[in-house]
Amino acid sequence: MKSWAGPLIPALPGQGLPLRLFDTATGEIRPTAPGPTATIYVCGITPYDATHLGHAATYLAFDILQRIWRDGGHDVKYVQNVTDIDDPLLERAVALGEDWRAIAERETEVFRADMHALGVIPPDDYIGAVEAIPSVANHVSYLQELGAVYQVADDLYFSVHSDPRFGSVTNLDEAEMINIFAERGGDPARPGKRHPLDCLVWQAARPGEPAWDTHLGHGRPGWHIECVAIALDYLGMPIDVQGGGSDLAFPHHEMGAAEAQVRNSTWPYARHYVHTAMVGWQGHKMSKSRGNLVFVSHLRRDGVDPMAIRLALLAHHYRIDWAWTPPDLTDASMRLALWRTATAAPAGPSADLVLERVRELLSDDMQTPTALEVIDRWAMETTASGGSNRSAPAQVASICDALLGVRLS
Ligand code: 5CA
Ligand code: ZN
Questions:
Q1: What is the mean pLDDT of residues 241-270?
Q2: Burial 307-318 (b: 16+ CB within 10 A, else e)
Q3: Ligand 2 ion: residues within 5 Å (CB)
Protein backbone atom coordinates (compact mmCIF):
# COMPACT_ATOMS: atom_id res chain seq x y z
CA MET A 1 0.00 0.00 0.00
CA LYS A 2 0.94 3.64 -0.22
CA SER A 3 3.62 4.72 2.25
CA TRP A 4 4.31 8.38 3.09
CA ALA A 5 6.77 10.98 1.80
CA GLY A 6 10.14 10.73 3.48
CA PRO A 7 12.24 13.51 5.01
CA LEU A 8 15.30 14.84 3.21
CA ILE A 9 18.27 13.83 5.33
CA PRO A 10 21.35 16.06 5.12
CA ALA A 11 24.76 14.41 4.81
CA LEU A 12 27.19 15.03 7.67
CA PRO A 13 30.97 15.30 7.50
CA GLY A 14 32.90 12.06 8.08
CA GLN A 15 31.14 8.85 9.01
CA GLY A 16 29.09 7.67 11.98
CA LEU A 17 30.09 4.78 14.25
CA PRO A 18 28.87 1.18 14.04
CA LEU A 19 25.65 0.81 15.97
CA ARG A 20 25.52 -1.30 19.12
CA LEU A 21 22.04 -2.30 20.23
CA PHE A 22 20.37 -4.29 22.97
CA ASP A 23 19.13 -7.63 21.67
CA THR A 24 16.26 -9.29 23.52
CA ALA A 25 17.39 -12.79 22.51
CA THR A 26 20.86 -12.55 24.04
CA GLY A 27 19.99 -9.98 26.71
CA GLU A 28 23.00 -7.85 25.89
CA ILE A 29 24.10 -4.84 23.91
CA ARG A 30 25.83 -6.21 20.81
CA PRO A 31 27.14 -4.63 17.62
CA THR A 32 24.77 -4.66 14.68
CA ALA A 33 26.80 -5.85 11.74
CA PRO A 34 24.79 -5.23 8.63
CA GLY A 35 26.17 -5.58 5.14
CA PRO A 36 26.14 -2.65 2.73
CA THR A 37 22.34 -2.75 2.88
CA ALA A 38 20.96 -3.16 6.37
CA THR A 39 17.53 -4.75 6.61
CA ILE A 40 14.85 -3.99 9.15
CA TYR A 41 11.27 -5.14 9.66
CA VAL A 42 9.17 -3.18 12.13
CA CYS A 43 5.72 -4.40 13.05
CA GLY A 44 3.13 -1.86 11.94
CA ILE A 45 -0.11 -0.72 13.46
CA THR A 46 -3.41 -2.47 13.71
CA PRO A 47 -5.31 0.44 12.21
CA TYR A 48 -7.66 1.75 14.82
CA ASP A 49 -6.93 4.36 17.50
CA ALA A 50 -3.83 5.52 15.64
CA THR A 51 -1.47 7.25 16.26
CA HIS A 52 -1.07 7.44 20.02
CA LEU A 53 2.15 8.57 21.66
CA GLY A 54 3.16 4.98 22.44
CA HIS A 55 3.01 4.14 18.73
CA ALA A 56 4.90 7.32 17.91
CA ALA A 57 7.67 6.59 20.44
CA THR A 58 8.13 3.10 19.03
CA TYR A 59 8.34 4.20 15.38
CA LEU A 60 10.64 7.09 16.31
CA ALA A 61 13.08 4.69 17.95
CA PHE A 62 13.36 2.70 14.72
CA ASP A 63 13.66 5.94 12.78
CA ILE A 64 16.69 6.93 14.87
CA LEU A 65 18.13 3.44 14.40
CA GLN A 66 17.98 3.88 10.63
CA ARG A 67 19.50 7.36 10.77
CA ILE A 68 22.48 5.92 12.66
CA TRP A 69 22.95 3.14 10.11
CA ARG A 70 22.74 5.62 7.23
CA ASP A 71 25.24 7.94 8.92
CA GLY A 72 27.49 4.88 9.26
CA GLY A 73 27.48 4.44 5.49
CA HIS A 74 24.80 1.76 5.07
CA ASP A 75 21.82 1.76 2.80
CA VAL A 76 18.71 0.60 4.60
CA LYS A 77 15.88 -1.56 3.36
CA TYR A 78 12.89 -1.05 5.62
CA VAL A 79 9.64 -3.03 5.60
CA GLN A 80 6.54 -2.51 7.72
CA ASN A 81 3.11 -4.11 7.72
CA VAL A 82 -0.38 -2.88 8.51
CA THR A 83 -2.51 -5.46 10.31
CA ASP A 84 -5.58 -4.42 8.35
CA ILE A 85 -7.48 -7.59 9.18
CA ASP A 86 -7.50 -8.99 12.72
CA ASP A 87 -9.88 -9.74 15.58
CA PRO A 88 -9.44 -6.41 17.43
CA LEU A 89 -10.17 -4.43 14.27
CA LEU A 90 -13.32 -6.47 13.61
CA GLU A 91 -14.41 -6.03 17.24
CA ARG A 92 -13.96 -2.26 16.91
CA ALA A 93 -15.96 -2.25 13.67
CA VAL A 94 -18.85 -4.00 15.44
CA ALA A 95 -18.62 -1.58 18.38
CA LEU A 96 -18.70 1.47 16.07
CA GLY A 97 -21.22 -0.03 13.65
CA GLU A 98 -18.78 0.79 10.85
CA ASP A 99 -17.24 -1.21 8.03
CA TRP A 100 -13.85 -2.62 9.13
CA ARG A 101 -12.29 -1.55 5.82
CA ALA A 102 -13.38 2.06 6.30
CA ILE A 103 -11.84 2.14 9.78
CA ALA A 104 -8.61 0.58 8.55
CA GLU A 105 -8.28 3.00 5.65
CA ARG A 106 -9.05 6.05 7.74
CA GLU A 107 -6.73 5.14 10.58
CA THR A 108 -3.88 4.15 8.27
CA GLU A 109 -4.21 7.55 6.66
CA VAL A 110 -4.05 9.28 10.07
CA PHE A 111 -0.93 7.25 10.83
CA ARG A 112 0.72 8.21 7.52
CA ALA A 113 -0.01 11.91 8.12
CA ASP A 114 1.36 11.72 11.68
CA MET A 115 4.50 9.89 10.62
CA HIS A 116 5.06 12.43 7.85
CA ALA A 117 4.59 15.35 10.25
CA LEU A 118 7.02 13.79 12.72
CA GLY A 119 9.60 13.38 9.96
CA VAL A 120 9.73 9.59 10.32
CA ILE A 121 11.55 7.71 7.55
CA PRO A 122 8.90 5.71 5.67
CA PRO A 123 9.22 2.00 4.91
CA ASP A 124 10.35 1.09 1.40
CA ASP A 125 7.57 -1.48 1.35
CA TYR A 126 4.42 -0.83 3.34
CA ILE A 127 2.31 -3.97 3.11
CA GLY A 128 -1.20 -4.64 4.32
CA ALA A 129 -2.14 -8.03 5.75
CA VAL A 130 -5.00 -8.25 3.27
CA GLU A 131 -2.74 -7.79 0.27
CA ALA A 132 -0.36 -10.41 1.72
CA ILE A 133 -3.04 -13.14 1.98
CA PRO A 134 -1.97 -15.11 -1.15
CA SER A 135 1.61 -15.08 0.10
CA VAL A 136 0.58 -16.15 3.61
CA ALA A 137 -1.33 -19.07 2.12
CA ASN A 138 1.79 -20.15 0.21
CA HIS A 139 4.01 -19.99 3.27
CA VAL A 140 1.45 -21.96 5.28
CA SER A 141 1.33 -24.65 2.57
CA TYR A 142 5.07 -24.87 2.64
CA LEU A 143 5.05 -25.35 6.41
CA GLN A 144 2.33 -27.94 5.94
CA GLU A 145 4.51 -29.88 3.49
CA LEU A 146 7.26 -29.83 6.09
CA GLY A 147 4.87 -31.39 8.60
CA ALA A 148 4.91 -28.31 10.85
CA VAL A 149 1.22 -27.43 10.43
CA TYR A 150 -1.83 -29.43 11.48
CA GLN A 151 -5.57 -29.05 11.45
CA VAL A 152 -7.92 -28.34 14.35
CA ALA A 153 -11.48 -28.37 13.01
CA ASP A 154 -11.04 -26.30 9.83
CA ASP A 155 -8.28 -24.10 11.26
CA LEU A 156 -4.56 -24.61 10.79
CA TYR A 157 -1.98 -24.50 13.60
CA PHE A 158 1.78 -24.22 13.55
CA SER A 159 3.52 -26.68 15.80
CA VAL A 160 5.95 -24.43 17.66
CA HIS A 161 8.23 -27.28 18.71
CA SER A 162 8.93 -28.12 15.10
CA ASP A 163 11.56 -25.44 15.66
CA PRO A 164 14.14 -26.82 18.10
CA ARG A 165 15.09 -23.24 18.95
CA PHE A 166 11.57 -22.20 19.88
CA GLY A 167 11.81 -20.01 22.99
CA SER A 168 15.19 -18.50 22.20
CA VAL A 169 13.90 -14.99 21.43
CA THR A 170 12.39 -14.31 24.84
CA ASN A 171 13.85 -17.15 26.96
CA LEU A 172 10.69 -17.50 29.05
CA ASP A 173 9.77 -20.70 30.83
CA GLU A 174 6.79 -22.61 29.53
CA ALA A 175 4.36 -21.57 32.27
CA GLU A 176 5.14 -17.90 31.63
CA MET A 177 4.73 -18.41 27.91
CA ILE A 178 1.33 -20.02 28.36
CA ASN A 179 0.13 -17.20 30.63
CA ILE A 180 1.25 -14.44 28.30
CA PHE A 181 -0.07 -16.30 25.27
CA ALA A 182 -3.54 -16.36 26.84
CA GLU A 183 -3.35 -12.64 27.65
CA ARG A 184 -2.22 -11.61 24.18
CA GLY A 185 -4.65 -13.19 21.78
CA GLY A 186 -3.51 -16.83 22.02
CA ASP A 187 -5.68 -19.87 22.75
CA PRO A 188 -3.62 -22.25 24.92
CA ALA A 189 -6.70 -24.13 26.15
CA ARG A 190 -8.30 -24.92 22.81
CA PRO A 191 -9.16 -28.63 22.65
CA GLY A 192 -7.55 -30.53 19.79
CA LYS A 193 -4.26 -28.66 19.83
CA ARG A 194 -1.17 -30.80 20.15
CA HIS A 195 0.58 -28.28 22.39
CA PRO A 196 -0.96 -25.30 24.25
CA LEU A 197 1.52 -22.90 22.61
CA ASP A 198 0.86 -23.95 19.02
CA CYS A 199 -0.39 -20.90 17.16
CA LEU A 200 -3.01 -20.27 14.54
CA VAL A 201 -1.71 -19.72 11.02
CA TRP A 202 -4.97 -19.97 9.12
CA GLN A 203 -8.45 -19.42 10.47
CA ALA A 204 -11.39 -20.85 8.53
CA ALA A 205 -14.22 -18.41 7.82
CA ARG A 206 -16.49 -17.62 10.77
CA PRO A 207 -20.09 -16.57 10.17
CA GLY A 208 -20.35 -12.84 9.55
CA GLU A 209 -16.60 -12.32 9.34
CA PRO A 210 -14.56 -11.43 6.27
CA ALA A 211 -12.78 -14.32 4.55
CA TRP A 212 -10.74 -14.91 1.40
CA ASP A 213 -10.57 -17.85 -0.99
CA THR A 214 -7.18 -19.51 -1.20
CA HIS A 215 -5.97 -23.05 -1.74
CA LEU A 216 -6.17 -23.40 2.06
CA GLY A 217 -9.90 -22.81 1.88
CA HIS A 218 -12.11 -19.85 2.74
CA GLY A 219 -10.60 -17.96 5.67
CA ARG A 220 -8.01 -15.49 6.84
CA PRO A 221 -4.43 -15.55 8.15
CA GLY A 222 -3.27 -15.86 11.71
CA TRP A 223 -1.36 -12.86 13.03
CA HIS A 224 2.27 -14.01 13.40
CA ILE A 225 2.52 -15.64 9.97
CA GLU A 226 1.34 -12.38 8.41
CA CYS A 227 4.51 -10.58 9.48
CA VAL A 228 6.72 -13.55 8.65
CA ALA A 229 5.34 -13.84 5.12
CA ILE A 230 5.87 -10.13 4.48
CA ALA A 231 9.36 -10.10 5.98
CA LEU A 232 10.49 -13.19 4.05
CA ASP A 233 9.01 -11.93 0.79
CA TYR A 234 10.46 -8.43 0.95
CA LEU A 235 13.66 -8.90 2.97
CA GLY A 236 14.62 -12.56 3.19
CA MET A 237 16.44 -13.83 6.24
CA PRO A 238 18.28 -13.21 8.39
CA ILE A 239 16.90 -9.73 8.88
CA ASP A 240 19.32 -7.44 10.68
CA VAL A 241 16.64 -6.13 13.03
CA GLN A 242 13.12 -7.30 13.87
CA GLY A 243 11.56 -4.45 15.77
CA GLY A 244 8.46 -3.61 17.74
CA GLY A 245 7.23 -2.68 21.18
CA SER A 246 8.09 -4.92 24.14
CA ASP A 247 4.52 -6.23 24.15
CA LEU A 248 5.33 -7.97 20.86
CA ALA A 249 8.34 -9.95 22.07
CA PHE A 250 6.08 -12.77 23.21
CA PRO A 251 4.20 -14.32 21.58
CA HIS A 252 4.45 -12.38 18.31
CA HIS A 253 8.19 -12.34 17.66
CA GLU A 254 8.85 -15.70 19.31
CA MET A 255 6.22 -17.42 17.18
CA GLY A 256 7.25 -15.53 14.06
CA ALA A 257 10.90 -16.51 14.46
CA ALA A 258 9.97 -20.18 14.87
CA GLU A 259 7.71 -20.11 11.80
CA ALA A 260 10.38 -18.47 9.66
CA GLN A 261 13.20 -20.70 10.89
CA VAL A 262 11.21 -23.83 10.07
CA ARG A 263 10.00 -22.38 6.77
CA ASN A 264 13.55 -21.63 5.59
CA SER A 265 15.42 -24.31 7.55
CA THR A 266 17.91 -21.68 8.68
CA TRP A 267 18.64 -19.74 11.83
CA PRO A 268 18.30 -17.00 12.95
CA TYR A 269 15.26 -15.22 11.62
CA ALA A 270 16.70 -11.95 12.89
CA ARG A 271 20.17 -11.02 14.07
CA HIS A 272 18.74 -8.58 16.61
CA TYR A 273 15.32 -8.51 18.24
CA VAL A 274 14.83 -4.92 19.32
CA HIS A 275 12.00 -3.95 21.65
CA THR A 276 10.87 -0.52 22.71
CA ALA A 277 9.52 0.42 26.12
CA MET A 278 5.85 1.00 26.82
CA VAL A 279 4.64 4.56 27.20
CA GLY A 280 2.03 5.05 29.90
CA TRP A 281 -0.61 7.65 30.66
CA GLN A 282 -2.89 7.99 33.67
CA GLY A 283 -1.24 5.15 35.54
CA HIS A 284 -1.33 2.49 32.84
CA LYS A 285 0.32 1.51 29.58
CA MET A 286 -1.28 3.59 26.83
CA SER A 287 -3.45 1.04 25.12
CA LYS A 288 -6.33 0.87 22.75
CA SER A 289 -8.11 -1.69 24.85
CA ARG A 290 -7.99 0.57 27.92
CA GLY A 291 -8.65 3.73 25.92
CA ASN A 292 -6.12 5.89 27.84
CA LEU A 293 -4.64 7.48 24.75
CA VAL A 294 -3.00 10.73 23.74
CA PHE A 295 -3.09 11.13 19.98
CA VAL A 296 -0.40 12.78 17.89
CA SER A 297 -3.10 14.13 15.56
CA HIS A 298 -4.93 15.82 18.46
CA LEU A 299 -1.75 17.49 19.67
CA ARG A 300 -1.06 18.67 16.12
CA ARG A 301 -4.62 19.92 15.75
CA ASP A 302 -4.12 21.91 18.95
CA GLY A 303 -1.14 23.63 17.35
CA VAL A 304 1.70 21.66 18.94
CA ASP A 305 4.79 21.70 16.72
CA PRO A 306 5.51 18.11 15.60
CA MET A 307 9.20 18.75 16.29
CA ALA A 308 8.29 19.41 19.94
CA ILE A 309 6.45 16.07 20.05
CA ARG A 310 9.52 14.44 18.57
CA LEU A 311 11.78 16.04 21.17
CA ALA A 312 9.42 15.07 23.99
CA LEU A 313 9.60 11.41 22.94
CA LEU A 314 13.35 11.37 22.26
CA ALA A 315 13.96 12.76 25.77
CA HIS A 316 13.23 9.22 27.01
CA HIS A 317 15.51 6.27 26.34
CA TYR A 318 13.76 3.80 24.06
CA ARG A 319 14.14 0.87 26.47
CA ILE A 320 12.89 2.46 29.70
CA ASP A 321 9.16 2.46 30.35
CA TRP A 322 7.85 5.93 31.13
CA ALA A 323 4.59 7.80 31.54
CA TRP A 324 3.60 10.83 29.53
CA THR A 325 2.89 13.98 31.56
CA PRO A 326 2.12 17.55 30.43
CA PRO A 327 5.64 18.81 31.38
CA ASP A 328 7.05 16.43 28.76
CA LEU A 329 5.60 18.73 26.16
CA THR A 330 6.33 22.09 27.81
CA ASP A 331 9.96 21.07 28.38
CA ALA A 332 10.27 19.91 24.78
CA SER A 333 8.78 23.17 23.46
CA MET A 334 11.28 25.19 25.52
CA ARG A 335 14.11 23.03 24.25
CA LEU A 336 12.95 23.45 20.65
CA ALA A 337 12.82 27.24 21.08
CA LEU A 338 16.34 27.25 22.55
CA TRP A 339 17.72 25.13 19.70
CA ARG A 340 15.99 27.32 17.10
CA THR A 341 17.40 30.51 18.60
CA ALA A 342 20.91 29.07 18.84
CA THR A 343 21.01 27.60 15.34
CA ALA A 344 19.79 30.94 13.92
CA ALA A 345 22.66 32.80 15.62
CA PRO A 346 25.34 34.35 13.36
CA ALA A 347 28.09 32.25 15.00
CA GLY A 348 28.65 29.78 17.82
CA PRO A 349 31.23 27.53 19.46
CA SER A 350 32.66 24.83 17.15
CA ALA A 351 30.29 21.95 16.31
CA ASP A 352 32.97 19.28 15.77
CA LEU A 353 32.81 17.94 19.30
CA VAL A 354 29.02 18.07 19.24
CA LEU A 355 28.97 15.78 16.22
CA GLU A 356 31.53 13.41 17.71
CA ARG A 357 29.69 13.16 21.04
CA VAL A 358 26.22 12.76 19.51
CA ARG A 359 27.53 10.01 17.25
CA GLU A 360 29.12 8.23 20.23
CA LEU A 361 25.97 8.40 22.32
CA LEU A 362 23.61 7.28 19.57
CA SER A 363 25.83 4.41 18.47
CA ASP A 364 25.80 3.11 22.06
CA ASP A 365 22.25 1.70 22.22
CA MET A 366 20.67 4.94 21.04
CA GLN A 367 21.12 7.20 24.05
CA THR A 368 18.90 9.98 22.75
CA PRO A 369 18.28 11.71 26.13
CA THR A 370 21.99 12.41 26.62
CA ALA A 371 22.42 13.33 22.95
CA LEU A 372 19.74 16.00 23.40
CA GLU A 373 21.67 17.34 26.40
CA VAL A 374 24.80 17.70 24.28
CA ILE A 375 22.86 19.93 21.88
CA ASP A 376 21.39 21.83 24.87
CA ARG A 377 24.86 22.66 26.17
CA TRP A 378 26.03 23.91 22.78
CA ALA A 379 22.85 25.96 22.41
CA MET A 380 23.18 27.50 25.87
CA GLU A 381 26.78 28.47 25.23
CA THR A 382 25.78 29.98 21.91
CA THR A 383 22.93 32.02 23.31
CA ALA A 384 24.89 33.07 26.43
CA SER A 385 28.14 34.26 24.94
CA GLY A 386 28.11 33.48 21.24
CA GLY A 387 31.22 32.07 19.61
CA SER A 388 33.41 32.76 16.67
CA ASN A 389 32.60 29.85 14.35
CA ARG A 390 30.25 31.14 11.67
CA SER A 391 29.42 27.76 10.21
CA ALA A 392 28.69 26.07 13.57
CA PRO A 393 24.98 27.01 13.85
CA ALA A 394 24.24 25.55 10.42
CA GLN A 395 26.32 22.47 11.24
CA VAL A 396 24.44 21.85 14.47
CA ALA A 397 21.14 22.33 12.65
CA SER A 398 22.28 19.60 10.20
CA ILE A 399 23.26 17.28 13.05
CA CYS A 400 19.82 17.73 14.65
CA ASP A 401 18.13 17.14 11.32
CA ALA A 402 20.19 14.15 10.12
CA LEU A 403 20.67 12.19 13.34
CA LEU A 404 17.71 13.22 15.48
CA GLY A 405 15.22 14.08 12.75
CA VAL A 406 14.59 17.45 14.38
CA ARG A 407 14.14 20.14 11.72
CA LEU A 408 14.88 23.56 13.13
CA SER A 409 14.10 25.86 10.18
N1 5CA B 1 -0.19 -4.79 14.23
C2 5CA B 1 0.50 -5.28 15.38
C3 5CA B 1 1.95 -5.62 15.09
S4 5CA B 1 2.12 -6.72 13.73
C5 5CA B 1 0.43 -4.30 16.53
O6 5CA B 1 0.96 -4.59 17.59
N7 5CA B 1 -0.22 -3.16 16.30
S8 5CA B 1 -0.47 -2.02 17.41
O9 5CA B 1 -1.18 -0.98 16.72
O10 5CA B 1 -1.08 -2.58 18.55
O11 5CA B 1 0.91 -1.49 17.85
C12 5CA B 1 1.80 -0.90 16.93
C13 5CA B 1 3.19 -0.76 17.56
O14 5CA B 1 3.13 0.16 18.66
C15 5CA B 1 3.71 -2.07 18.14
O16 5CA B 1 5.12 -2.18 17.91
C17 5CA B 1 3.44 -1.95 19.61
O18 5CA B 1 4.34 -2.70 20.39
C19 5CA B 1 3.66 -0.45 19.82
N20 5CA B 1 2.93 0.06 20.99
C21 5CA B 1 1.63 -0.14 21.32
N22 5CA B 1 1.32 0.48 22.49
C23 5CA B 1 2.46 1.09 22.91
C24 5CA B 1 2.81 1.89 24.05
N25 5CA B 1 1.92 2.20 24.99
N26 5CA B 1 4.08 2.35 24.15
C27 5CA B 1 5.01 2.04 23.20
N28 5CA B 1 4.74 1.30 22.09
C29 5CA B 1 3.49 0.82 21.95
ZN1 ZN C 1 4.07 -7.92 13.50
A1: 98
A2: bbbbbbbbbbbb
A3: 43, 227
